[in-house]
Amino acid sequence: MSQPPALDIRSLRYAIGGATIIDDVTFSVAPGEMLGVIGPNGAGKTTLFNLISGIAVASSGTITLDGADVTSAPVHRRARAGLGRTFQTSSLFPALSVAENVRLAAQARLGGALSVVRAPRDSDAASGVAAERLAEVGLAHHAATTAGVLSHGDKRKLEIAMLLAADPAVILLDEPMAGVASGDVAGLGQVIRDVHRAGRTVLMVEHHLDVLLGLVDRVAVMHHGRLLAIGEPSEVVADPAVQAAYLGEAV
Amino acid sequence: MSTIVLLLVTGLGLGALYFLVASGLSLIYGLMGVLNFAHGSFLTLGAFAGFELARRLGGDSWPALIASLVLGSAVGALAAALTELLLIRRLYERHIEQVLVTVGLSLATVALFEGIWGTDPIYVSAPAWFGQTTELLGARIPNDRFVLIGVAALVLLGIVAFLRFTRYGLIIRAGVENRPMVTALGIDVRRAFTVVFAIGGAAAGLGGVLASHYFGYVSAQLGGSLLIFAFIVTVIGGLGSLSGAAIASVVVAVLQQFANFYWGVGDLVVVLLLAGVLLLRPAGILGKKVHA
């Protein structure tokens, strides 16, 4: 018996105010696969992520997460079902300490019934997980630092540490390299590769095509809300329709 | 000198009342973006509940006072939690409707309170010590001021400790900063909304019982009159900032007392202060950026 896809999207459509933002998109992602999502600005990449994570609700079609239909489930329930994401702008809590940021993610994962008054002790399970994840991404020495003052590259690492602490099976990364200094791109790419190697399914929107194409197993191209092509990076890049869509755009 | 000390301590006492109302307003706005115009009703309801209980327990004894404070805050918390669960939750992210509903609730509850307890102020009795004075630096200070200041300080410390040292506190602090990400982590942030409403309602209910002793009476209008100043305090302190609300409560109330005593223009000075803060520092004393 074969495993269900980690993520399965069927005839997904999203329209708002008469404009169709996502139009009849169908694809699925196998467990442990890394899929890149590319396309010109306004192609619907972030909207697609919003539909998958539940921030926006699809007009029609279905979204299945590890065999369970989550098409209209609220955001927090999808997260509990094993979906994690980062945001294009920021997925951090700048005024909290680095350790508190990760702890929150760990406590969401381990929480169960949250007790209102129970103190988050340094010795409890969530704090232990938080410390481990910080060490994994190389931020242990910054645990007590306020997250807002970290360098851009370190902030991105912190977001990854939070994702790891939340331990999702499927991860959506929305432009993880955006704004990262060129010297830090390689290091961040390695962190993403490690996250993926741990057996997680990763979907990633990224404009740094050179980095993206070196990381992913397959790449999906969005254009005007439609799925233009999906396949191995070398095939997709050679596809004339994809080249036409990017014509005139700085790739 | 003694006049200045008296005005200062009285101002601190009034500031304590403002803070008990403003702390809830600020937390609720900070986490949920809700301007809760019904917050004064939680205060009034707490005050009436406290009055009814104290009356049945014999009015002016210490146990009656303490029981009325406990009941006032419990009733305030319950009313606030119910308001969140039954009304606000259905209007998630619909800010105009939230304002309409909370304004409507406040008007309706004032009418309800007037229907039950009448439109005249009801005078409350307290332990004799409350009406006596203690001499401080030559000034004879009414004792209820000290109780107000002490209770407000305890509430401030309690809320700060809750936010800093509990799991819900962490969720609330994170939610104030980046609510979408909290839900993306798998946390049902709506539960934190109910908790925050209940905390705010408890502080307001406590403030209601104390206000009835500060002013000497309870009436259906009690909450509304304090709510205006509490909102001003919340804006001056920076919407969403608890310590900002605490600082602004003291500044506004002390300034109001002095302006009232020397020139009789306390309310005017407060409104001018508000206008000045909005012009020069729109985010308030400790507020972060103003978001749309």
TrEMBL record, chain A:
GO MF terms held by the record: ATP binding
SMART domains this protein is in? AAA
Q: Which Pfam families match?
A: ABC_tran, BCA_ABC_TP_C
In this chain the ABC transporter domain maps to 7-249
Question: What are the UniProt keywords, alphabetically?
Answer: ATP-binding, Nucleotide-binding, Transport
Q: Which SUPFAM superfamilies does this UniProt record tie to the protein?
A: P-loop containing nucleoside triphosphate hydrolases
Classification via PANTHER family: ABC TRANSPORTER ATP-BINDING PROTEIN, CONSERVED COMPONENT OF ABC TRANSPORTER FOR NATURAL AMINO ACIDS-RELATED
List the protein's name.
ABC transporter ATP-binding protein
UniProtKB/TrEMBL annotation, chain B:
The UniProt keywords, alphabetically, are: Amino-acid transport, Cell membrane, Membrane, Transmembrane, Transmembrane helix, Transport
Localization of this protein = Cell membrane
Q: Is NAD a UniProt keyword of this protein? A: no
**Keyword set includes Membrane:** yes
Q: Which residues cross the membrane?
A: 64-87, 99-117, 146-171, 192-215, 227-254, 261-280
Pfam families cross-referenced by the UniProt entry: BPD_transp_2 (PF02653)
Membrane-protein topology:
Multi-pass membrane protein
Protein family membership: Belongs to the binding-protein-dependent transport system permease family. LivHM subfamily.
Name used for this protein in its record: Branched-chain amino acid ABC transporter permease
